[in-house]
């Protein structure tokens, strides 16, 4: 580092993915500047957050390495130890149990804002990480041995590499003229927290309906679940605008009254669904991670977990390069990250597309086939165990940071 550089790395986007990446670099001793367009919230002023993530065991390890996991309170983390998936059209079903592969849990349900808070607390404690809120990039320039970034209010920063973690509408990606191929699913998801008559028993449940999947994710309170209901945009809007009693009735009926009557619910939010993939994850002195690089259908709850794997993989490439005395912003170095993550993310994207199309197909022969398939897999322990280990982040091409026993 010379006086020419304000930081080793500038990260744009202070959400879960950008915050985790900045923490991982900070833990390794690199100098980091994190910029975020939002205003940092005060904890006491926040509402109940209906946006929750199903965090895998691999993502747990990444958040632990980032130093954020220990800042979560015990009542912030809900476990799900089992999963039950079934089809509206037929009797086929599949059930997973973490105990069958000698694991205490399949994963965790944690609200978006809770994870962001833990990461921000860690970042503010790190002397080599500087966080600046309410700023947005306006200009970038590759100066051969440095990247210059200028914000809309005139701040300038030079660093070896700039990383975009500012979401699917990434301003930084647009400034770099990186094409973002997007496919609109013509679906929306409705999310809220509900209180049910029967306890969830730490089981994550998902029922495939003709318009899309409906998931109930267990919260800390044994009678509370976070719901994500993927459906047509018109139906999602109608659900949002219903009075509570009508909404509770339709929701319970759509879920086959699996958890009994819906007693209460929080404010409902609706968001559009799409998948997307950036043409390139890297350029000279620039890289994309998380939703800036890709987005997937939420039916398996993998979006945030893929982003955390991006953050861990890129952090390992950057830290390894710096420790070897090499320039981390060189395109040849950054392509190691792209080769590792782009194909993996694309495979997951197309797999989710396949599941979506399979379960929305109303052909009787396809209905019979998928119900038979669910029952067949449910009867084959080795197949279920392989699926579970991969989904939980215990197997696969994982960064060392994500491995449980590294």
Shape: globular
Task: Indicate the mean pLDDT.
Answer: 93
| Largest sheet descriptor | 9 strands, mixed
Separation of termini?
30 Å
Helix content: 25-40%
The number of helical runs is 10
| Secondary structure: number of strands | 20
CATH superfamily of the domain at 7-78 and 111-182 and 274-361: FAD/NAD(P)-binding domain
Based on helices, strands and strand pairing, what is the structural class? Answer: alpha+beta
The CATH topology of the domain at 7-78 and 111-182 and 274-361: FAD/NAD(P)-binding domain
CATH architectural arrangement of the domain at 7-78 and 111-182 and 274-361: 3-Layer(bba) Sandwich
- Report Rg: 22 Å
**β-strand amount:** 25-35%
CATH class identity of the domain at 7-78 and 111-182 and 274-361: Alpha Beta
Q: What's the SSE pattern? A: EHEEHEEEEHEEEEHEEEEHHEEEEEHHHH
Uncertain segments are none
